[in-house]
Task: structure prediction
Amino acid sequence: TGVQTCALPIYHRYRWMAQRAVVALKPPAEPMSLRVIFTIPDSAAARHVTMLLDGQEVAAQSYNGPGRQTLTSRPVLGSIVEIVVDKTFRAPGDARDLGVVLEAVGFAGR
Result:
């Protein structure tokens, strides 16, 4: 929830997220780092991103400006990932509250 579908062909593997996005993952057999890859567009107001796993904060970072970013946790176990941004914005002609462009969420190898 909180991940906006996009009106582009399926090969575009990104989605706008609102202030909060929730993603269910298959939990790893052993603790692994959790990684979120996202882009803060020039027009986005978000500058702080927090990542929670099963309701517990596992990583948080502030960013100085726009750009492609990666937020990575320590090795963890869990399945419900929540990504939260501090601010949203609305593009002209679009009623959605937009946070950042979410590109990937998943457990990373060692």
About this structure: Confidence is low (pLDDT under 50) at residues 1-12. The CA atoms of residues 89 and 95 lie 10 Å apart. The chain has no helices and eight strands.
